[in-house]
Amino acid sequence: MANRDRPQTEAPGEPFMNVHGAPPSGVVRHEHPTVDAALARAWLRQMLLIREFELRCMQAYQDKKIGGFCHVYIGQEAVAVGCVAAVEATDPIVTAYRDHGHALARGMEARHCMAEMFGRAGGCAKGKGGSMHMFDRAHNLFGGHGIVGAQVPLGVGLAFGTKYLDEVVNGGRSSRVTLAFLGDGALNQGSVHEAMNLAGLFDLPIVFVCENNGYSMGTAIARGTTMGHNISAKAAAYGYEGLVIDGMDVLTVYAEMKAIVERVRSTCRPVFVDMRTYRYKGHSMSDPRKYRTREEEEQYEMDDPIGAIKGHLEARGMTEEEFKALQRDVRTEVRGAMEWSESSPAPPVADLYRDVYIERWGTYTGSSQPEMLGGAENAPQFQAFDPKADLL
Amino acid sequence: MTAVAAREIEFRDALREAMSEEMRRDTRVMLLGEEVAQYNGAYKVSRGMLDEFGPRRVIDTPISESGFAGMAIGAAMLGLRPIVEFMSWSFSLVAADQILNNAPKMLYMSGGQFGCPIVFRGNDGAGGQLGSTHSWSVEGLYSNVPGLTMAIPSNPYDAKGLMKTAIRCDDPVFFLESERLLGMKGEVPEEEYLIPFGQARVARRGDDCTIVAFGRPVHLALEAAEALAKEGVSCEVLDMRTIRPLDAGSIVSSVRRTGACVVVDQSWSFGSPGSEVASLVHRECFDDLDNHVHRVHSADVPTPYAHALEQEYLPNPRRICEAVRSCLYRA
Ligand SMILES: Cc1ncc(C[n+]2csc(CCOP(=O)(O)OP(=O)(O)O)c2C)c(N)n1
Ligand SMILES: [Mg+2]
Q1: pLDDT tens across B21-71, in order?
Q2: Which residue's alpha carbon is at the smallest distance from atom 3 of ligand 1?
Q3: Catalytically active residues of B, by annotation
Q4: What's the structural domain count of chain A?
Q5: Whether the predicted pLDDT of B180 surpasses 70
Q6: Residue B124 and residue B176: Cα distance in Å, rounded?
Q7: Residue A256 belongs to what domain range?
Q8: pLDDT of the residue at A375
Q9: CATH match of B8-187 with 1.20.140.10
Q10: Looking at the partner chain, which of A143, A194, A390 has a beta carbon nearest the beta carbon of B66?
Q11: Pairwise CB contact (< 8 Å): B198 & A361
Q12: Measured between alpha carbons, how far is residue B285 from residues A96, B260, B289 in Å?
């Protein structure tokens, strides 16, 4: 295990050579984790898929096929892939707007993710959500969310909810762990701290994964966050563990997260993780990255998470030809996703008024239209409660 | 019909009966909020519920409206049915992002995948000399948002029936209670009943003018109607019960008959349920009206503390009478 020293530059006015500052002791990279080679190769493929997907997104954004805000995950792939691998498919996940990586790692098909960004009917949210709102009920992905920090109380609610369902409704033991992802900038939101307090107070099975890429838009962490060099210390104030993980190495992320998740599963005590990572591209599509130096970017690029797992697999016998085959494979998949999304129809205009309400008091066409008249004949019929059918 | 001795209970007891009955029926339902459990509720609405349901289902939260509202929304996404008590709707403002961005939009922005069956409830409205920050009537502010439903009972019977519907509703419900009314007694039958959303109640029949009102102002409208009757003016008072959905049909058919409409809404006038009703009536009853819709709202100022000022600020029977007379060209 190599201790990764990242010296902090302190001189005022000097560019941050290393945005994270010196890591607290204990940030380790696992050099010889005992992970099945096939599994590791699957993670490499997922990471390649995310990167290819994001590169194609950037292109599609330039081509005006994607609108609104679009935040790509390039550089952070090891975090979503390693974390998702460390939990069960039934464990809920919720994240912020930089969410394509989580969706793909969770198993959402690339075409449903891309079609959502294209605003097509075939998108995961039928074109109603866009880049920031990847929802996938079948894969227990409770969304990408656009308001910084707002997904964190939701994550605490998912943890509260699974525990309540397991223990109160079904009379068993709490069995699921929620992963709530947040950015380092989100750590400065009040709702996040309220949520962290509640999680500690109520003994909730949740891991807060703070994807610390060193920046919230153009604000380097040291400029916006007290204790920016050691944010995991904040967990102590809420009475639980705070850990630092090298988020540029998927094997380390997996190994550390696996241990954390199983601990949380059995103790129902939350854990906060300072997941050290870096986004290689701008905050969103319109960011010229004037607030940081090329040197800093290069330093982190040498630490490329895809390079790290590739190197690991090469040491275990993967040939360059096999790597190229994986690259070709994901390129084909993403190209297919683009083509599929292009051919997916725009949502029908009638969908504008769909999914505003579940219960209907007549056809919903907006407030106080005559169609919304009350009356016994429009009263909703209540179904008997069937936990197996209703509950996740 | 068998003559059963009418049972009278307080508004707060009606609310509690509704919550308790639904919690007995469905373990997915739980109550959480500040002081709801050990303290028995800041306004004693949840009195005794901790004893019956225990701390797993009647949950004291810290003063973290954004945190616990968001937490409950997350739980609702899983299919649970939380009831969130805000000590006052005034305090919901610090949770505005959660209750306005997350709860009512989740279904839509997830393309129909995740709903949010949740009830937010608490005291709404001025009248207790609580000053500007504690006296919110959130009807105008929140009813603007599609995806939520809003109920505003005026009496114990409706409070119980609407609350039971709210808890069974698959969409987020903003349930506005009035501290002024919590001690009000009224007939509530022992048998179970639900009151559907979007169905107004005719609180008083009349022929000359329709008064449309929401929540506590229904009582002010009834007082005004009583006074006006002595002048020979016959008012019909509609208690709307819900703001979203709005029972447009009951308003329209009443106004077509009376030819005059006054709306009483305790929120501010600019962009409010009152302005929505006026627009509706002007659109649907244009040819039936002898005058434009007259509106009685809280004065367009922050809520004052002094008793006399606060009473003048609120819709009151005098202002309602003036509006009706003016509408009928009797001023
Ligand atoms: C409440 C709120 N304020 C501001 C914004 C605009 N905004 C979007 S992302 C962002 C930076 C967040 O940074 P961080 O949490 O570190 O996440 P990252 O983008 O690095 O993944 C800001 C300021 C927002 N979406 N929500
Ligand atoms: Mg960041």
Answers
A1: 999 999 999 999 999 999 999 999 999 999 999 999 999 999 999 999 999
A2: A148
A3: 65, 134
A4: 2
A5: yes
A6: 6
A7: 25-286+304-343
A8: 42
A9: no
A10: A194
A11: yes
A12: 47, 9, 6
* Overall size of chain B counted in residues: 331
Burial of A3 from C-beta contacts in 10 A (0-12 / 13-18 / 19+): exposed
pLDDT for residue A23: 59
Residue A4 has what pLDDT? Answer: 39
Residue nearest to atom 7 of ligand 1 (CA): A148
If you count residue pairs, one on A and one on B, with CB atoms under 8 Å apart, how many are there?
Answer: 221
Tell me the CA–centroid distance for residue A184 and ligand 1, in Å.
9
- Per-domain boundaries in chain B: 8-187, 201-326
Residue B206 sits at φ, ψ, to 5 deg, of -170, 170
| Interface membership of B145 toward A (CB under 8 Å) | no
In this prediction the pTM is: 0.93
A residues 196-215 lying closer than 8 A (beta carbon) to B:
197-198, 201-202
In Å, how far are A20, A123, A276, A292, B72 from A14, measured between CA atoms?
14, 45, 22, 10, 45
| Minimal C-alpha gap between A40 and chain B (Å) | 32
Closest alpha carbon to A93 in A210, A183, A180, A206: A180
Euclidean distance between CA atoms B6 and A142, whole angstroms: 48
In order of A53, A60, A73, A85, B23, the CA distances from A109 in angstroms are: 11, 18, 17, 17, 39
- pLDDT mean over B77-91: 97
Q: Give the CB-side neighbour count of residue B279, counting CA atoms within 13 A.
A: 13
Q: 């819900």: which residue's tokens?
A: B242
Task: Enter the CATH code of domain B201-326.
Answer: 3.40.50.920
The total of other beta-carbon atoms located within 10 Å of residue B207's CB is 14
Amino acid A10: pLDDT: 39
Q: Return the CATH number at A100.
A: 3.40.50.970
Residue range A284-343, pLDDT digits in tens: 998 999 999 999 999 999 999 999 999 999 999 999 999 999 999 999 999 999 999 999
Pick from A353-367, B135-149, B237-251: least confident? A353-367
